[in-house]
């Protein structure tokens, strides 16, 4: 496996890492380890002890949760993280258990900053907690948007907005106006992410296809007209 420093171009394509103070960015690379996961392999589960900070270098990680009575438990897919997303910062701050499950949805390579090493470095350089806090507040803003959408928007608009957000990397890319054309997500995953039925998801996607905004294929959605899809969110 390559050295962590070999993945700097991927990391620097992300807005958070690209704007870190050089001392913090260099320290993260010096502490980093590479971790490979196979499709379906668990990284951590809700209730697990803190294990550090992660960045997705290749592949994708699903953050999910399960709730309800044991005989009626339901799963929710909160977000699918792709390069160059960082995650795991909540437990870095409160030193408490993991809040959700994380597993690879395809062969995935992660940059791993071990928990104890990161804590020791931040204790010695407390001025850099602020930079790490910006990662947390960015996620909090996204969470507020998701809650607002769930409360106020009908399913077709929520689905269109989620596709736009995914196409634009949830605003995490450093380059202005960057977007991806093909989103690797299944209809089942979309339905879990938006808390709507598989049938409703299929119907909305067919309507978007009829308007030539997207093309749906097995395990992916191709964005044909991002501007028009964004306009359909309102």
The backbone outline, from C-alpha atoms, is: globular
Low-confidence stretches: none
Query: What string, H for helix and E for strand, traces the elements in order?
Result: HHHEEEEEEHEEHHHEHHEEH
Rg: 18 Å
Query: What does the average pLDDT come to?
Result: 93
User: Helicity range of the residues?
Assistant: 40-55%
End-to-end gap: 46 Å
Provide a brief overview of the structure.
With 234 residues, the protein is of the alpha+beta class.
How is this fold's topology laid out?
Blueprint: H1 8-12, H2 15-18, H3 22-31, E1 33-37, E2 42-44, E3 52-58, E4 61-67, E5 74-81, E6 86-87, H4 89-94, E7 101-104, E8 108-114, H5 115-124, H6 129-152, H7 155-167, E9 182-183, H8 187-194, H9 198-210, E10 214-217, E11 220-223, H10 226-231
Antiparallel strand pairs: 1-8, 2-7, 3-6, 3-8, 4-5, 4-7, 9-11, 10-11
Describe this protein's structure.
By secondary structure, the protein is of the alpha+beta class. The protein has helices at 8-12, 15-18, 22-31, 89-94, 115-124, 129-152, 155-167, 187-194, 198-210, 226-231; strands spanning 33-37, 42-44, 52-58, 61-67, 74-81, 86-87, 101-104, 108-114, 182-183, 214-217, 220-223. The strands form three sheets. The chain has a four-stranded antiparallel sheet with strand order 1-8-3-6. A hairpin with a 2-residue loop joins strand 10 (214-217) and strand 11 (220-223). It is globular. It starts with 7 loop residues before the first helix and ends with a helix.
């Amino acid at each position: 496996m390559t050295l962590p420093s070999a993945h700097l171009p991927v990391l620097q394509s992300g807005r958070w890492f690209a704007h870190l103070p050089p001392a913090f960015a260099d320290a993260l690379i010096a502490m980093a380890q590479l971790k490979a996961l196979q499709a379906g392999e668990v990284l951590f589960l809700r209730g697990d002890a803190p294990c550090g900070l992660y960045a997705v270098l290749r592949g994708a990680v699903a953050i999910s949760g399960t709730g309800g009575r044991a005989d009626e438990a339901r799963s929710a897919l909160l977000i699918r993280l792709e390069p160059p997303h960082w995650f795991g910062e909540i437990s870095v701050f409160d030193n408490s258990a993991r809040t959700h499950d994380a597993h690879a949805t395809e062969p995935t390579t992660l940059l791993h900053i071990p928990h104890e090493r990161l804590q020791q470095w931040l204790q010695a350089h407390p001025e850099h907690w602020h930079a790490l806090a910006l990662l947390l507040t960015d996620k909090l803003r996204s969470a507020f948007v998701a809650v607002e959408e769930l409360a106020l928007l009908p399913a077709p608009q929520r689905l269109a907005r989620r596709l736009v957000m995914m196409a634009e990397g949830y605003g995490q890319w450093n380059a202005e106006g960057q977007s991806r054309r093909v989103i690797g997500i299944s209809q089942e995953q979309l339905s879990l992410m938006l808390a709507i039925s598989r049938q409703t998801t299929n119907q909305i996607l067919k309507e978007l296809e009829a308007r030539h905004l997207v093309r749906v294929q097995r395990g992916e959605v191709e964005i044909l007209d991002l501007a028009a899809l964004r306009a359909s969110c309102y």
